[in-house]
Amino acid sequence: MAIGDGHRESKESWKDVLLGLKQRGLQAGPLLAVGDGAMGFWAAMEEVFPQTGRQPLLVPQMGNILNALPKSQHGRAKADMQAIWMAATREEAQAAFAKFVGSYQAKYPKAVEKLEKDRDSLLAFYDFPAEHWQHIRTTNPIESTFATVRHRTSRTRNCVSRATFLGLAFKLIEEAEKSWRRIRGVEKIELLLKGVPFKDGEPVQDNLPVQQKLAA
After folding, report:
1. Residue 59 predicted with pLDDT over 70
2. Which residue among 6, 77, 150, 189 is buried most deeply as judged by most CB within 10 Å?
3. What's a Gene Ontology MF term here (predicted)?
4. Is 81 within a domain?
């Protein structure tokens, strides 16, 4: 875990946090970064950990797209987007994606443009264990923690030193961490670290030797 203060989530502020992680041992970088549309975060990730994959948060993305649609279309569009996120395979997600584009392109091109610009990264979770998808697609536990920290520190912001403020925020997050849900499929992390690729949430492994043994 890392914590730091910064200026409006700027690239330099995020870069300081990421370089701090790197100095503490995270040399290879994470396999996947999950975040909202904060440009500073993604720009810093690209510079410090260029090999890290990108997964935008789906709920904020959905909100951005709905903002480009009239309210009369929100219910149907929401269901059409959820058909993309909740598809069992990347192929099914791509089909749902194409259906959305076909349904809204003519009348609402701006909404389609917002969806298409992040097409590949929006579906990055399919290259990770299916058990991890619910953790990758949302950061609600972290957002809830941040809301608690903001609520508890808003009145003390101008009353304590920078170091004291950061220490207080750290202790609040550390306490909130105790209620976080344990990651599902924790044993799959070892496969990821060993470089085993995943497709549609399942490990891709060569079963030829096993088949040869059975044939023998």
Report:
1. yes
2. 77
3. transposase activity
4. yes
pTM for the model stands at: 0.79
Structural contact between residues 78 and 66, judged by C-beta atoms closer than 8 angstroms: yes
Task: Look at strands 198-199 and 202-203 and give their pairing.
Answer: antiparallel
112 in any annotated domain: yes
Q: For residue 212, what pLDDT band results from cuts at 50, 70 and 90?
A: very low
Q: Which residues are CB-contacts of 200 (< 8 A; sequence separation ≥ 6)?
A: 88, 89, 90, 91, 126, 130
Q: How far apart are CA 200 and CA 212, in angstroms?
A: 26
Terminal CA-CA length for the chain: 51
Q: What letter represents residue 118's amino acid?
A: D
Per-residue pLDDT, 214: 39
